[in-house]
Amino acid sequence: MRTLTTAALERSFVTGVGNRVRIYEADTLGATNVRDVASLAGATAVRPMRKRLLVDLSDLPLSTVDNVEGMTWGPVLPTRERTLVLVSDDNFSSSQVTQVIALAVR
Fold it and tell me: Would you say the pTM of this structure is higher than 0.70?
């Protein structure tokens, strides 16, 4: 069984629609290191990293999905799952909420 070592947070906001937050498993194994490449325009020998959707927060029973700005690994659970903790703050705005979301990741 492969264990999750890297998670990536992708988020977006559209006025009238709201926030969209997705968490992906990110795997750089086999990807091309482009650190010293000036431009990827026209590059043909570049192998991208892989990612796999773990969760779309809109699929969870949350009262709202706000602007998640922080993510960290938490402790390992007795079930051997790892906790992933997400946080958003209300930015002192009545239209936003402060959230702490804890997820169990296999």
Answer: yes
Report the distance separating Cα 7 and Cα 49, nearest Å: 13
Range of the domain at 92: 7-105
> Which among 97, 62, 68 is positioned nearest to 85, based on CA atoms?
68
Give domain status of residue 40, yes or no: yes
How far is residue 52's CA from residue 14's CA, in Å, rounded to a whole number? 23
CA–CA separation, 80 vs 3, rounded Å?
Answer: 11
Sign of CA dihedral 23, 12, 47, 39: negative
pLDDT band at 2 (very low <50, low <70, confident <90, very high): very low
Does the structure show a pLDDT above 60 at 39? yes
In this structure, is residue 1 part of a structural domain? no
| Sequence-distant (≥ 6) Cβ neighbours of residue 37 within 8 angstroms | 43, 46
